[in-house]
C-alpha cells in the first residue's frame, strides 16, 4: 500500500501519538494505574483518528484535552499539596 504525501504525514503524526500512548505503560510502576488508563485512552484516540479519518487538528486537540484532564486528575489525587 502506497500513501501519497498528505496521507504519509497524517499517518506519521497518528503513529507518533500512538507511540506516546504506548510509552505511558512503562510508567505504571512509578505513577500507578492511572497512567496506564491514559496510555489506553491516548492509543484509542489515535486509532479512532486512523479509522474515522478525522482531521489532524481535531485529533491533536482531543489528545491535548485528554492529557490535560488526566493532569488535573493527577493534581487532585497527588499526595503533595500544591
TrEMBL record:
Keyword Transmembrane helix on entry: yes
Task: Determine the domain of life of the protein's source.
Answer: Bacteria
Membrane in keyword set: yes
Keywords, alphabetical: Membrane, Transmembrane, Transmembrane helix
Tell me where the transmembrane regions lie: 6-27, 34-52
Recorded protein name is: Uncharacterized protein
Q: Which organism is it from?
A: Companilactobacillus nantensis DSM 16982
Amino acid at each position: 500500500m502506497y500513501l501519497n504525501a498528505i496521507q504519509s504525514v497524517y499517518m506519521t503524526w497518528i503513529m507518533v501519538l500512538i507511540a506516546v500512548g504506548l510509552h505511558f505503560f512503562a510508567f505504571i510502576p512509578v505513577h500507578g494505574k492511572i497512567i496506564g488508563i491514559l496510555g489506553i485512552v491516548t492509543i484509542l484516540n489515535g486509532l479512532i483518528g486512523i479509522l474515522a479519518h478525522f482531521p489532524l487538528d481535531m485529533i491533536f486537540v482531543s489528545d491535548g484535552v485528554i492529557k490535560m484532564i488526566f493532569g488535573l486528575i493527577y493534581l487532585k489525587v497527588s499526595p503533595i499539596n500544591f
